[in-house]
Amino acid sequence: VVCRCFLNFSDERPLKLHVYIYICKNVSQPSLLCDQVYILSRKCGLDKGLLPLSLSLSWYFGKLGRKDAERQLLSTGNPRGTYLIRESETTKGAFSLSIRDWDDVKGDHVKHYKIRKLDSGGYYITTRAQFETLQQLVQHYTERAAGLCCRLVVPCHKGMPRLTDLSVKTKDVWEIPRESLQLVKRLGNGQFGEVWMGTWNGNTKVAVKTLKPGTMSPESFLEEAQIMKKLRHDKLVQLYAVVSEEPIYIVTEYMGKGSLLDFLKDGEGRALKLPNLVDMAAQVAAGMAYIERMNYIHRDLRSANILVGDNLVCKIADFGLARLIEDNEYTARQGAKFPIKWTAPEAALYGKFTIKSDVWSFGILLTELVTKGRVPYPGMNNREVLEQVERGYRMPSPQDCPSSLHELMVQCWKKEAEERPTFEYLQAFLEDYFTATEPQYQPGDNL
Question: Which of 104-108, 351-355, 423-427 has the weakest average pLDDT?
Fold first, then answer.
């Protein structure tokens, strides 16, 4: 990192600042020491000429939300005392210390402590112990608990930074040659194409969705993809690049656990209990709340279009693509390929797709989560579902599903679209579920 005062640039000349993260490939290569802060010039203030704090300090996670901090700390393999420091969501200039703890009543859980800033520039959790730097605070609580739930044992593992583009070139020009992709392993085969794990340029792991010729117009797809590429959120599967000549290839980030539907039915998801399932629902709601803010619509929200990664991370895939499909069995809306059981009645009957029809679909997705991937409306065909829903029928509460969660589903299935909740509300409700709605939650046989 190079700062203006070190190079003595005048204010009139533009200065480009570059940060390089170097990861050595083997022990014989040199490596940056990322547990130190590097000052390139003594003329700099503390805010210039430094590696960013998030690169310098293994325990500093920057702008990480409370819920995401809990997800990372509760990942498998983290012992009691695993910790991280992040920016406070509620108090500007303050920080939060999040620690993984355990007790007989709650089991594994996370405790959060506010780190306040002194007018003199120091930091404290309790006024009895004040420190000039965050590093000194961490060192103090590493040696003793001193009023915390336990002493700090090990920083939370960060993992690799999220890739938002394949390269600088593909950020704006993201039509790539087909020969730059290698299809390595077929992951799935759907109505309109296949999904592969592959590599780009032989070294970057990606997912590649290949569409059967005739599935959609290449021109329409490119137009929609221009919008999709601009949608960036950590709960949305990132679109990297496309091959727009048929057969169309859609290149996205790779999610190692596959679709949420398969994960629930056949994978690790079969053993998940309600707290994990509610958290996964909250992640989907967070991604959809972003889509809501961006005035976009998904049109095909269901567990088959949610992908799962490590540590039960869920991301929304295939947003916007349903509008482009030209298959007659799909566009008829009541044809065999159309997902009637997930679709709001006004969308299925009259083609009126809105963010509120996505809310209806989210309510159906909640039943998929609670039932571990069971097909909605068991024992009913598409025509029967359409007729019964129009008459006011709604699915009953699944086995072991808390009443408050079923009530949320029913809110999503209100006949009048404007009466359904927003995704912003759904996200907040689900993120606070166990503290706000189910303090006496007791697990059932299946959940």
Answer: 104-108
Residue 76 has pLDDT above 60, yes or no: yes
209 marked ligand binding residue: yes
Q: Which domain holds residue 13?
A: 1-56
38-52, 132-146, 335-349, range with greatest mean pLDDT: 132-146
**Is there a single domain that holds both residue 266 and residue 411?**
yes
In a domain, 163, yes or no: no
Phi-psi region of 134 (alpha: psi -120 to 50; beta: other; left: phi over 0): alpha
| Catalytic (active site) residue 300 | yes
Amino acid identity at 81: G
Identity of the amino acid at 91: T
At 134, which amino acid appears? L
Residue with the bigger pLDDT between 6 and 429: it is: 429
| Residues 201, 102 share a domain | no
In a domain, 70, yes or no: yes
Quick one: DSSP state of residue 446? -
**Strands 249-252 and 306-308, how do they pair?**
unpaired
Selected catalytic residue, list 279, 300, 318, 358: 300
Beta strands 107-117; 249-252: pairing state:
unpaired
Instruction: Look up the CATH number of the domain holding residue 319.
Output: 1.10.510.10
The better pLDDT of the pair 284, 89 is held by 284
Tell me the whole-structure pTM to 2 decimals: 0.76
